[in-house]
């Protein structure tokens, strides 16, 4: 099947299937058409409603009556599959209040803006080391060389992983990335389970070690954390650590990769950024709007609810397209243009409401520092012309490899 070039080439009554190759490579052809023709789209193939208007996505994110607990969706439905796909103990991402509020309260301090700003010099030192190791004048993969490493090294340091264990820890963390893929093959599933068992055992040992001997790290902070006399159990801390890894690493990697691609495909914007380095924050916000690492999230209706003017029934899965919301012409002029100096960069790349991404400040600072460090070393950066393939996992948006050449 050839890829449609414009909205008018699309068949009427189309179904949006996120696993479809055309959707993966050229999603905005579909999403623009949906927004125009059917903004609260009933997708029978994947049993869900798809929202594409920014205003509807924003309203949905604000609605705290909705659930992220897969137990509230019928078995086999989109919500049950996506939210249940991480397996094992339920993390706070898929818990509703009061359990969600309790767990989030116990870890939120470590991730607030002030704690993360205090880490900026350390993030810069790690980025310097990684960027200095990139070759000059010949192609390198920016994902493997920088984007995948910076978030992993930082979260390992924050948790307090011993340097001697870091190679194992990095391997297990990469292995955990399949966790959010609802379309795993049996082989991928078996690998994920073995990986999960090894990572969980390692983390359990680390938690027990910190109970006996506290240090200045996040696992110790979770061991000590107390709210209303409440403590986190070992199982809860292990689950939280795994959530931080799967929610934080691949997403931040993709943010850095997508930022490099957007800048190199838009050389005028890159040149403008080089002359306006204080606008690095806006550059990262624009990437989050234009090419967000997480394309979609899910909410489950606990009772009939009005969504974008349509009433959906109890148990329905509602999928706000974070990708489509960032390109809504009702919110942004010339939405398909990458433009750092926009009046605003309104986006929903970090979700919203009670589950708004805990790691947003960390991800933003890491991306800012990675880009600043990269641009400082290489006065010229160019895309290599080898073909690129977007990730197959439908909720994640990025590349496994992105080859570039840099000259100092
Ligand atoms: C939740 C995106 C980085 C930890 C989420 C959600 C999204 C998201 C879309 C779901 C929100 C919802 O459904 O309303 C991103 C993106 C990132 C990123 C795009 C990078 C650019 C990180 C990092 C960490 C992290 C670095 C931590 C190290 C979490 C956690 C949750 C979450 C713990 C669950 C929050 C809750 O349930 O209360 N993130 N994330 N994320 N993220 Fe991130």
From TrEMBL:
This is Cytochrome P450. The lineage of its organism: Bacteria, Pseudomonadati, Pseudomonadota, Alphaproteobacteria, Sphingomonadales. Belongs to the cytochrome P450 family. GO terms for molecular function: heme binding; iron ion binding; monooxygenase activity; oxidoreductase activity, acting on paired donors, with incorporation or reduction of molecular oxygen. It comes from Glacieibacterium arshaanense. It comes from the Bacteria. InterPro entries: Cyt_P450, Cyt_P450_B, Cyt_P450_CS, Cyt_P450_sf. Keywords: Heme, Iron, Metal-binding, Monooxygenase, Oxidoreductase. PROSITE patterns: CYTOCHROME_P450 (PS00086). Cytochromes P450 are a group of heme-thiolate monooxygenases. They oxidize a variety of structurally unrelated compounds, including steroids, fatty acids, and xenobiotics. SUPFAM superfamilies: Cytochrome P450.
């Amino acid at each position: 099947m050839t890829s449609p070039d414009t909205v008018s080439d699309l068949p009427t009554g189309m179904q949006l299937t996120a696993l479809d190759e055309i959707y993966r490579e050229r999603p905005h052809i579909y999403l623009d058409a949906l927004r125009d023709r059917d903004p609260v789209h009933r997708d029978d193939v994947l049993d869900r409603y798809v929202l594409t208007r920014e205003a509807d996505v924003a309203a949905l994110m604000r609605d705290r009556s909705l659930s992220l607990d897969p137990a509230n969706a019928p078995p086999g439905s989109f919500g049950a599959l996506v939210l249940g796909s991480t397996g094992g103990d339920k993390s706070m991402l898929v818990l509703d209040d009061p359990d969600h509020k309790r767990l989030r309260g116990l870890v939120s301090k470590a991730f607030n803006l002030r704690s993360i700003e205090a880490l900026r010099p350390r993030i810069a030192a790690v980025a310097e080391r990684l960027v200095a190791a990139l070759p000059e004048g010949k192609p390198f993969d920016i994902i493997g060389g920088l984007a995948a490493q910076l978030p992993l090294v930082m979260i390992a340091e924050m948790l307090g992983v011993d340097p001697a264990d870091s190679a194992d820890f990095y391997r297990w963390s990469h292995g955990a990335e399949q966790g959010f893929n609802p379309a795993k093959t049996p082989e991928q599933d078996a690998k994920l389970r073995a990986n999960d068992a090894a990572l969980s055992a390692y983390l359990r040992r680390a938690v027990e070690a910190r109970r006996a001997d506290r240090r200045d790290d996040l696992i110790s902070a979770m061991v000590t954390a107390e709210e209303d006399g409440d403590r986190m159990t070992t199982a809860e801390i292990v689950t939280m650590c795994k959530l931080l890894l799967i929610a934080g690493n691949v997403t931040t990697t993709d943010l850095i990769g997508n930022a490099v691609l957007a800048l190199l495909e838009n050389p005028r914007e890159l040149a403008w950024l080089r002359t306006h380095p204080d606008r690095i924050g806006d550059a990262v916000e624009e990437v989050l709007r234009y090419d967000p690492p997480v394309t979609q999230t899910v909410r489950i209706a606990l009772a009939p609810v009005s969504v974008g003017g349509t009433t959906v029934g109890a148990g329905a899965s509602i999928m706000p397209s974070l990708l489509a919301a960032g390109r809504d012409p009702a919110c942004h002029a010339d939405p398909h243009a990458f433009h750092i100096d926009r009046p605003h960069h309104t986006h929903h790349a970090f979700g919203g409401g009670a589950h708004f991404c805990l790691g947003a400040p960390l991800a933003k600072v890491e991306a800012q520092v990675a880009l600043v460090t990269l641009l400082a070393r290489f006065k010229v950066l160019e895309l290599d012309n080898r073909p690129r393939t977007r990730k197959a996992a439908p909720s994640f948006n990025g590349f496994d490899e992105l080859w570039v050449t840099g000259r100092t």
